[in-house]
Amino acid sequence: MRGATHAKWAACAAAVALAATACGGGSDSGGGGADGIVSSSWGDPQNPLEPANTNEVQGGKVLDMIFRGLKRYDPETGEAKNFLAEKIETTDSQNFTITLKDGWKFSNDEPVTAQSFVDAWNYGADVTKKQNNSPFFSDIVGYADVHPEKGDPKSKTMSGLVVKDPKTFTVALKEKFSTWPETLGYQAFSPLPKAFFTDHDAWLKKPVGNGPYTVDSYTKGTGMKLRTWDAYPGEDKAVNGGVDLKVYTDNNTAYTDLISGNLDLVDDVPAQQLKNVANDLGDRYINQPALIIQTLTFPLYDPQWSKEGMDKVRRGISMAINRDEITKQIFRETRTPAKDWTSPALGDKGGFSATACGEACSFNPTEAKKLIQEAGGLPGGKVSLTSNVDTGSHREWMDAVCNSINNALGEGPVCTVNPIGTFADFRNQQSSFKLTGPFRSGWQADYPLIQNFLEPLYYTGASSNYGKFSNPEFDKLVDAANRESDAAKATGLFKDAEKILAEQMPSIPLWYQNGSAGYGERVSDVKLNQFSVPVYDQIKVS
User: Fold this and answer.
1) Degrees (nearest 5) of the Cα angle 210, 213, 216?
2) Cα 26 from Cα 260, distance rounded (Å)
3) Residue 27 has pLDDT above 90, yes or no
């Protein structure tokens, strides 16, 4: 039951940049940045920057700069490559021996040891610490002792984690999980220094990690300054002097600052500017496929949406949405109508299917109206769509989706929009299960596996299953896929599980989202990784 993305809400995580402040994000250095510093649009993280507690995009950007883990995903291919891990060995896909490379340390000069990982993972799993990413550790033997469903924990440590020596530890999983090593590039598995535990409050104010950057300062609502760590022992040393992340609450303001030379990088070009971006930026505009999907999730914890027969209504709403028209008119080639619950960036071998959703993802207003009427109509005769509206053009597309639904049903304005001012407020309502109608669910994958598009979002009790969908057969297939050592067979089992989503429609696939960014003339070598996050450490400043 691995959990969310730095989305990855994507939730996540959506995969949309949170952005911009009342001050407009203008640089205090008189230009995009100074002394080799990259300035970039950003949004305040939802939670303090603990690796096991950060499962949304904005906090994830920072963790990606200040931490390095056992594995790291190749920025171009997404392949999980050993990083701090010298080797990860297993003979049965259930018991693993992990050996660390020499020479790694944290920016406070503490060595990175096997204990650094074991202590961090035990902390992340501890129910009393209330970490969002706890389910990522649920496969490890002893998780139930530190994270019981009810009552107090029996232990502070998981018995499945054993330190053998400073460079070696073993991990025992409850069941076979053949692709488990591939998940270890996710930030929840980062190591933590002793300082995290001995002076936790101080660490939260100024996090200490083992990545190419250190946190210089953070002012909520304004921004964070990160500076290059000169003694960083890794091969991916930063080629700039640091990054100033500037908070924006309107990404149109961020774009204006970019064009005027007051900002170096915007990693979410607003839809309103897509008609201008080619003329404004030329080849300094990036638009590429990413491991991101946008859906509308139904609150199945609300009886009006989960009662018998409502699957017809959910399917009908999906068929009432004209994805082709909306993506063309609003998003201008930065979105593609969804055909399944994953991403084309996975490829066919990785589990993407252009037919999984079938007719339910095809615009058919006549059939949509018929299905909804056969099921007794919309709950209370209406439906309200919820999202944050501070970025990502969410208000525009929600209005368009409602117009499409209203036109299809022909019953007046039965679909309305429930806008929430900020991403953080939206996430808080979403994660506390307070929403009563379909809500935006942007998912930016944590790692490039079909498992990560299905299990965290739809497995019973998973950490990003905000609609509280639960289906025993779905869970059974996911468990079987995780145990399967043959990659092709495992992918097939996940695709079988996806068929259940097509039957039940716990969420409506809307569109796949490209990674988009624009950058100024001061910087070069700007790239986005497969998760649509800038590869900050490789950006050069002239």
Assistant:
1) 115
2) 10
3) no
Residue 96 one-letter amino acid = F
Looking at residue 371, what is its pLDDT?
97
Pairwise CA distance, residues 200 & 475, whole Å = 37
Give the Cα separation of 412 and 356 in Å (integer).
32
445 upstream amide cis, omega within 30 of 0? no
pLDDT of residue 10: 38
∠ CA 344-184-484, rounded to 5°: 70
pLDDT band at 453 (very low <50, low <70, confident <90, very high): very high
Decide if 282 contacts 474 (C-beta within 8 A).
no
At residue 503, what is the residue type? Answer: E
Tens-place pLDDT, residues 127-176? 999 999 998 999 999 999 999 999 999 999 999 999 999 999 999 999 99
Res 389: pLDDT:
86
d(CA 174, CA 144): 11
CB 494 within 8 A of CB 351: yes
Q: Are 377 and 371 in contact (CB under 8 A)?
A: no
Residue 51 near residue 66 (C-beta atoms within 8 A): no
Rounded CA separation 133/62 (Å) = 16
Residue 152 near residue 158 (C-beta atoms within 8 A): no
One-letter amino acid of 127: V
pLDDT (tens digit per residue) in 52-82? 999 888 999 999 999 999 999 998 888 899 9
The dihedral of CA 352, 353, 359, 364: what is its sign? Answer: positive
Question: How is residue 112 annotated by DSSP?
Answer: P
Count the neighbouring beta carbons within 10 Å of the beta carbon of residue 347.
Answer: 10
CA dist 12 and 17 (Å) reads: 11
The pairing of beta strand 223-228 with beta strand 213-219:
antiparallel
- Whether the pTM exceeds 0.90: the reply is no
Collapsed DSSP state (helix, strand, coil) of residue 319:
helix
Closest C-alpha among 75, 127, 117 to residue 96:
117
